[in-house]
Specification:
The chain has 849 residues and is of the alpha+beta class. It is built from 18 helices and 48 strands. The strands form 13 sheets. It has a 6-stranded antiparallel sheet with strand order 4-3-5-11-8-9. Strand 12 and strand 13 form a beta hairpin. The longest helix is centred in the middle third of the chain and has 26 residues, at 464-489. It is globular, with a radius of gyration of 29 Å.
């Protein structure tokens, strides 16, 4: 298969794939216009958008209502049962047809697609995750041509395959379909089993030669030199001499030039070269994510017939998974440095993938960077993301934990299925292996855990023979097929069979490998349990929170905006979601009765619980070396575990994450006899700073304080102070009005601070804080100067009728100490007069009074 994308390998380490530039000899004709669609067997054709999906095309033609609005999802389930047909008419001139090779390339067909060129069958697709290519020159003609694609119902095909087994697999029909599993519904997503041409489709025109599987291999790397090799398979029509040249697009420096004279139509080319004094690629929190810019050219008779522009990052990455004093470690070393990973689980940004724009990707990756994340996990129930996602992670310095697309189910392993998956895996591994952001491959999400700990064998009443066969299929897929692909095509990248290694119900989950801790939420354990249930690398944990009001306004009528309305229930996919929220809310805050107050409190509840978890994980460094919360984002407007909602509006939790993921963090915890102050640093250099500690009441009276100089070693976690609890007043009621403040100050600048309360939020004795504020204009928006007389708990800034991403605030939901002030920046492209007129500042007191 001729691969259009720039593919490049740097040993196990590296690169960003840049855009490809074709010479006059090789070219691309995109088929992105003149598409129409119909229900198969009918003749009512409607205009279509490609790339696109059947749901978005139906919506654009006003045949269906918005699937995300209200409870429309339920009324649109019929779409998944229908076969759909697309066609495109395009013109080919004689000059184009005279080229030596013309291939039809479909980068993404969702999912069962039969493709015809001028009524000649060229592709029978059965995998959403594969690129499909067919030689179609012989079927083309000068003048008008047509591509026609029939999409069969993935649901029907899956059920058809399921009937062939004598037992039922967990996951039902979706496990037989190589399609994004979340399309079939999840406990945060709708069931919208769509189909369509969801990635570009084009004619690839080639003459003389083509570059296939372009790779860079990093043989060795140190501060003085990087030893690199260029590998490629060159396809030529007739044996002839050609030259490969590798140069720097910025400096013009030529790294390597070599002549080749193949004796047949395929040549494996290799060029070795050295870069002196190489600049390393780092995650953004540790240094610069530096990228080299290479141009690879193929010259025939001194004419460039094909060219690739490649961005290359030089770094080493390894996963340390070995026996130690605690059990079995799991952590990442970047350029030889053990790095604590701070991040989240990423899911697809939409159920209809072509709607995700470049700006959507840029905004979300920027949110990750601005919130001090250095890793995102691409979860196995979604999709392998497009090149732009990984390019941005390369450029911004964010590592990627990459799952293969299998999640929470058992899968078949007949020869056809395994071969399909093998090709899928080869294509995805060779496409992504070269990115510096790619940290590891993971076989699946929670399948080993599901089989051993979720009671599937009892639930489905498997016989011993059935159980043995199902597990043998698991072994064939995840212990044989996928690792074999990694060994053959990305051998220096770490492969992790299943995440987690052990489920949260087993003791080894806290001592071995990675863990998903769901004792909070699923297990109904209190937030405080996070302190004692800390794994070696916590790759999943989470808690729900409502999205903000403006998000709900976009998907509901005014009459539906009340607590637990039918519409809200349609946008709460967890079977016990509202009841679980209520149970936790009554423990910590009490349950509000109005929707506005419920949104606010639910977001505080989520933030409070997740802050507890993150601080516990970071306090446990180096025993614990990673925390990836569930989940970073949403695929539609919903009540979920996300920190940023479908419209990229931040929840309270997102503001808390930025502080909890700061490279230097101070935490406060209490034991039976002491108040413990701990300082964690992820910096690569030591720091001398001042530690300021203070115990005061909500009116501002100081009970105790201390200042001292501290040394913060590089990449460390240490308890700085164990303060006797005798500093607290004996009266428990007084303790309900106390806050312990811990700050680390460097050159009079607070670099991290934390406020610790001795009672749950609902038991705090809050009084009217007396908040006032003033406004001043600044470039790109305005500043809000907020003052308070008494403690203001969880100060909430909002704009009536203008919430959401209309205004981006530098902070929100924060605590303001008595007699102090803060300055919040509000960035916006909207006229500020109306925003300022609708500005509101409130706090927890106003909700509970």
């Amino acid at each position: 298969m001729w691969c259009k994308k720039n593919i490049l390998l740097l040993f196990g380490f590296f690169f960003c794939i840049g855009s490809q530039t074709f010479s006059q000899v090789n070219d691309t004709l995109f088929l992105d216009k003149n598409w129409s669609f119909t229900e198969s067997g009918t003749s009512n054709w409607f205009s279509a958008t490609v790339p696109g999906t059947i749901h978005t095309d139906l919506l654009a033609n006003k045949i269906i209502p918005d699937p995300y609005f209200g409870c429309n999802e339920i009324s649109l389930l019929w779409i998944e049962t229908i076969n759909w047909e697309y066609k495109c008419n395009f013109f080919v001139d004689e000059k184009t047809l005279n080229n030596q090779h013309i291939d039809l390339v479909a980068e993404g067909l969702d999912t069962y697609a039969t493709v015809y060129v001028n009524n000649q069958l060229v592709i029978s697709a059965d995998n959403m995750f594969r690129e499909w290519t067919a030689d179609c020159k012989k079927y083309l003609k000068v003048g008008n041509n047509q591509v026609r694609i029939i999409f069969e119902s993935a649901v029907a095909k899956g059920k058809e395959q399921a009937k062939k087994l004598p037992y039922t697999l967990p996951g039902d029909e979706k496990v037989f379909v190589r399609k994004a599993q979340y399309h079939f519904g999840w406990d945060w997503g709708p069931r919208l089993v769509t189909c369509g041409i969801y990635k570009p489709i084009f004619l690839q025109i080639r003459n003389d030669c083509a570059l296939e599987e372009v790779q860079f291999i990093q043989r060795a790397l140190n501060k003085n030199e990087a030893w690199l090799a260029f590998h490629s398979k060159i396809i030529v029509d007739t044996p002839q001499a050609f030259v490969i040249k590798i140069s720097d697009t910025k400096t013009g420096n030529v790294y390597a030039t070599q002549h080749f004279n193949p004796g047949n139509d395929t040549c494996d080319a290799r060029l070795d070269f050295v870069i002196k004094n190489p600049v390393y690629w780092w995650t953004h929190d540790l240094g610069e994510p530096y990228l080299y810019h290479f141009t690879v050219q193929v010259l025939l008779n001194n004419t460039c017939v094909e060219q690739r522009n490649l961005n290359v990052g030089l770094r080493t990455i390894e996963v340390v998974n070995e026996k130690d004093q605690y059990g079995e470690s799991f952590y990442f070393k970047l350029n030889g440095v053990a790095v604590f990973m701070k991040g989240a689980n990423y899911i697809p940004q939409d159920n209809f993938l072509p709607r995700v724009t470049r700006k959507n990707y840029e905004d979300l990756i920027n949110i990750a960077v601005n919130n001090n994340m250095n890793m995102l996990r691409v979860w196995g129930g979604g999709v392998y993301e497009n090149d732009l996602f990984y390019d941005l992670c390369d450029e911004k310095g964010v590592l990627v934990w990459q799952d293969f697309m299998f999640a929470c189910a058992m899968y078949p392993a007949d020869s056809a299925f395994l071969n399909n998956v093998k090709i899928e895996a080869i294509q995805q591994v060779t496409r992504l292996r070269n990115h510096p952001c790619l940290a590891l491959w993971c076989g699946n999400n929670e399948i080993d855990e599901g089989w051993n700990n979720w009671g599937w064998q009892k639930q489905y009443n498997y016989s011993l023979a059935d159980s043995t066969k199902i597990w043998a299929d698991y072994v064939a897929l995840f212990k044989k097929t996928l690792p074999d692909v990694i060994q053959a095509h990305d051998s220096n990248r770490f492969y992790w069979q299943s995440s987690p290694q052990y489920g949260w119900g087993r003791e080894k989950s806290y001592s071995n490998g990675d863990s998903h801790y769901w004792g909070v939420w699923w297990g109904m354990q209190p937030f405080e349990i996070y302190v004692n249930k800390t794994g070696r690398f916590v790759s999943e944990y989470g808690f729900q929170g409502f999205p903000e009001k403006s998000t709900l306004e976009k998907i509901s009528n005014t009459s539906d905006r009340f607590l637990f309305s039918d519409v809200l229930k349609c946008h709460q996919k967890h079977p016990t979601g509202f009841q679980t929220l209520k149970n936790y809310m009554l423990r910590e805050y009490n349950e509000p009765t109005s929707l506005d107050d419920y949104i606010y409190i639910s977001q505080l509840l989520q933030a409070y619980g997740m802050k507890t978890a993150i601080e516990a994980h970071r306090n446990a460094k180096p025993r614990c070396m990673g925390t990836l919360y569930w989940q970073f984002n949403d695929c539609w407007p919903v009540v979920s575990w996300s920190g940023t909602d479908y419209y990229h509006n931040p929840k309270a939790f997102q503001y808390f994450v930025k502080k909890a993921y700061n490279d230097i963090l101070v935490t406060v915890n209490k034991s039976d006899k002491t108040i413990n102050v701990q300082v964690i640093s992820d910096k690569l250099n030591a720091l001398t700073a001042q530690l300021d500690l203070k115990l005061l009441d909500f009116d501002g009276k100081t009970y105790w304080q201390q200042q001292k100089e501290i040394n913060i070693p590089a990449n460390s976690s240490q308890i700085i102070e164990n303060i006797d609890k005798s500093i607290l007043p004996a009266d428990s009621l007084l303790q309900s009005s106390l806050v312990f403040v811990a700050r680390v100050v460097d050159n009079k600048r607070v670099i991290t601070e934390n406020f610790f309360y001795f009672k749950k939020p609902k038991d705090l004795v809050l009084t009217n804080p007396g908040i006032t504020f003033t406004i001043e204009s600044i470039s790109g928006g305005f500043a809000i100067n907020i003052q308070t007389k008494k403690l203001a708990k969880n100060v909430f800034i909002y704009f009536e009728n203008h919430q959401g991403t209309d205004v981006v605030l530098s902070d929100n939901f924060f605590d303001l100490l008595p007699g102090t002030s803060t300055r919040i920046l509000a960035k916006t492209n909207l006229p500020t007069d109306e925003l300022i007129k609708n500005l509101k500042v409130t706090s927890l007191f106003d909700i509970i009074k």
